[in-house]
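Sample pair:
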Amino acid sequence: MLNSTGDRERLAKLAQSYQADQQLKYLHLQAEVEVLLQQLRALEQRRQRTEQHVHN
């Protein structure tokens, strides 16, 4: 149980630190997903161009 204002303040700081860490991890994952989507789109475009050349 939280017995003092100091305990509550330490817990609040810990929670803020945890939230910031989780937000940073989320942003990194979001950026990684965006890079992977761009790579996937590029591969799909390359595949479509290759198929067009084969059929022509």
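The chain has a mean pLDDT of 93.
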